[in-house]
Amino acid sequence: MINLPLLPILIPLLTGVLLMFFTKQLWMQRIVSFLSTLLTIGVSLYLVFQVKAQGILTVTLGSWPAPFGITLVSDMLSALLVLTTSLLVFFVIWYSMTYLSEQHQRFYYYIAVQFLLVGVNGAFTTGDIFNMFVFFEVFLISSYVLIVLGGKPAQLRESLKYLLVNVISSALFVMTVAFLYGIIGTLNMADISQKIAEINQPGILSVIAILFLVVFGLKGAIFPLYFWLPGSYQVPPTPVLALFGALLTKVGVYGILRTYSLFFSNEVGIIHSLLGGLALATIIIGVIGALATKDAKQILIYNIIVAVGVILYGVSVMTRQSLEGAVFYLLHDMLIKAALFLLVGIMIGIAGSSRLKSMGGMIKDYPLLGWTYFIAALSLAGIPPFSGFIGKLLIVRGGIEAGDLVGPFIVLASSLLVLYSVMQIFIRGFWGTPKTYTGSRRHLVKQLIAPTILLVTITVAYGVGAEAVRPFITQAVDPLVDPSIYIQAVLKGG
Amino acid sequence: MKKPMKKNTNDVILESATTFITFIIFLFAVYLFFAGHYTPGGGFIGGLVTSSALVLILLAFDIKTLRQILPFDYKMVTAVGMLIAVLTASGALLFNVPFFTHAHGYFELPLFGKTSLHTAMLFDLGVYFVVVGVTMTIIQTIGESD
Questions:
Q1: Which of A23, A89, A166, B33 could be joined to B46 by an S-S link, Cβ 3.0–4.6 Å?
Q2: Which of B79, B82, B99 comes nearest A3 by C-beta?
Q3: pLDDT digits (tens, 9 = 90+) for A277-305
């Protein structure tokens, strides 16, 4: 099957289109999107094993030879990210069926989610920088729909900010690609990488590298560019927030990871130390935010920022070990963030508010929820048997090996404070004297907990089975350390 | 202020001019659509010009009249367009060639003689429907919201 890398994009696209034909039949919408996402997971799993067996898979659309057509490249990194994305979307769809009101689901909700999946999977798979922009727009436009759906005043206000920031960053993306095209004269990422190596990276390319950092940093919320995120992510309903928190910022991180390892790997001086500095500042800002707030949702939202900082610190060190840690941590963080948001969503559903002071003593009535949250929280902080541990360990070791002591120290200290911030939710929410809850969704806990527990189980398995996952991660890091593997696979040695 | 559904004004000149100008615009749109492969034009501009013909009807008459003339749900038009585009592109999957690989050839057609037919035209047809559908959905939704 020559088109295999394409299928995780094509299946949700076709599903989204088909769903547009029967927007009135809610049951059909649910069943079709549930089953098709299950199919997408199956295909992405098959893709991962194919990439494992055969190396990097490429397909150049329209049968044009490589630098001229749009190439889709499934290396192990993108295949793993596509698999994780499809998994998360599946759980969020399952969760939304009971969590969201029927009114909410009726207005093209599942269509927007499918198109979000198209955009994110596409952005992970594409091997063409302008095509990556297009896929960014696909998932951004879906996210505009999802953030405003419901039409509450706060949602309208925040979606306006969100839209404004993203329109500006998209314009900047186009300008950056235009600069790059003006110098290099090609858009295929493998070809760009090859040509940059030929002209030996003059100063203007460092400027472009920093522009890319600004563009992807606005999407991925790094230190001075994170300002839109805490407000915008507060307003959409929790399943949508789980999608955003787990996927959207990570696409920005992936963009930085890809461009910095593929394009700007020849001269690792100023731009990588800039990236490292910003990553550490991002960690600090995220931790401060997470400690300062007394709102369960906000604590997790600031933890997204912390995780982005940790991953990007791993990227900036650019050794094999730190990159391995970054990839490990990236996958872990996508899974665990989605799980935590879904768990906190249930708590908000019970209590009717996301303020910590409106919760208390939930362990008495909802022990299963409480212990699942406890495991997820330990996993986020990186306690050894769970999944956050190995990624952070590798990042810290990579940092120390590269002769940096400040970075690893900040990463380690952030783990402690992250643990403190998520334990706040556990202590305030689950311990103490039980309160009477007035949340409208407290009768739904039994249905909502099933997908959440399954997701937490997957993250635990990911941590415990790290030995089994390791070869996949190693293969994912190979083209990041040595771009010639990627270039060879795309341009077939030409 | 709520707008009355049927206008009370007496725009005889505008309305009778619209009745035949609409057809000219529509023909021009079809011309642009088919000319796309060799000369400037294509699905996008063809779709926009078609919508402009429909908007002219909206200006001269009202939403109700347009709905009587062309009783389409424009959201469905968009969906059909998307489906045509996606299926055209994924037709390549059946022949196990990369996605979006188009096929073309020369055919002897009864009326036109030797004509080149290309599956890219089907993709453009999808684009055309999507553009018409989206434009008209936007305009009708804003027009009806009051």
A1: B33
A2: B99
A3: 999 999 999 999 999 999 999 999 999 99
